Amino acid sequence: MAELYARRALFDDEHEAFRDSVRTFLARQVADHVEEWEEAEAVPREIWRAAGAQGFIGLPVPVEYDGGGVDDYRFRVAMIEESARVGATSMAAGFSTHTDIVLPYIVDLATAEQAKRWLPSLATGEHIGAIAMTEPGTGSDLRGIRTSARRDGDGWLINGTKTFITNGINADRVIVVARTDPDPSAGSRAFSLIVVEDGTLGFTRGRRLKKIGQKAQDTAELSFSDVRVDAGHVLGEVGAGLPALMSHLPLERLSIAVTACASARAALTWTISYIHERKAFGKSIAEFQNTQFAIAEMVTELEVTQTYIDDAVLRLNNRALSAVDAAKAKWWATEMHKRTVDRCVQLFGGYGYMIEYPIARAYADARVTTIYGGTTEIMKTIIARDVLGVR
Hints:
- It is a single chain.
- By secondary structure, the chain is α+β, with helices and mostly antiparallel strands.
- The protein folds into three domains: about 1-125, Acyl-CoA dehydrogenase/oxidase, N-terminal domain (Butyryl-Coa Dehydrogenase, subunit A, domain 1); about 130-240, Beta Barrel (Butyryl-CoA Dehydrogenase, subunit A, domain 2), CATH 2.40.110.10; about 245-390, Up-down Bundle (Butyryl-CoA Dehydrogenase, subunit A, domain 3), CATH 1.20.140.10.
- The protein is about 50% helix and about 15% strand.
- The protein is built from eleven helices and ten strands.
- Strands 1-4-5-8 form a four-stranded mixed β-sheet, covered by helices on one side. Strands 2-3-7-6 form a four-stranded antiparallel β-sheet, covered by helices on one side. The protein has a two-stranded antiparallel sheet with strand order 9-10.
- A hairpin with a 2-residue loop joins strand 2 and strand 3.
- Helix 9 (about 325-350) runs antiparallel to helix 11.
- The longest helix has about 35 residues, at about 240-275.
- The radius of gyration is 21 Å and the shape is globular.
């Protein structure tokens, strides 16, 4: 069982030292509260601030904006793996949206004035970020977005509704994907990214959405009714929203793939411990050949997948991870994760269906991973079009 968490060639001593600090933080402030947060359906804001104080939230933010100035995704991998190890999937999902999605957009696209205004509080966990893409009738088809932003003097008026927004309840800064050119011929130049701040008139949050898994990670509907922002809230160039989204999707999808491997590893670790303890017909479940074959298959599939994901992390660091390869990582890792957790529940038997066992929560948490960030079907389409050269 120790081999499942053996040090991999991906990491050096600095990454492992960082991992140790994350593990200490999780042991002291997170591990004993996971069930409590699941029942409350919220991760307390003080945990965000505590993680920010340790430098865990603002890793990609430049030092001059109170961030870590870390341009090496391996540190995030270590943090994701340790969070999964203690079953803090919901917390990790919120952190990933904030750190792996929201912050890179602002770091890469913000003006100096915008960066000074938004990044320090996001880096320290004082403020929480979200990105609003999905709409009630629009999921993976971003060109179908109907939320609009029209010019109003020197600013913009935003109208529309978003749904399934991670960190939606607690977000202080929301990157809204809006249609800024109503002309059908505008194509990919029809969309822009606009930052809406908490408290802006006309910006309201709907109900906290009830989910079958990842319950402590707040997910919400957001509404924009004549929300007025000035021109300084446009992130990047007007009309450049879709290219910006496409250029950042590889990191988002790799983050999901990394989480999938980390969660599968945690599930296998819990299962291996359990099958040594559980007795049936006078011997441990681990002694049955069927159990041994199942474990051998799952461990091998995980390790083969992990090798691809680790290589993708290095390619991301070198600015060489393509959208197609990220799609491969996301598709394969999440489907592997889903299969693994399902088989682990089977080995737990009836106890695996009891919510007080981490494996039961892991089972519910895993289901959405093949849906968000682009469904498995969308990932396959991206890959096939690249291979076949068709549109």
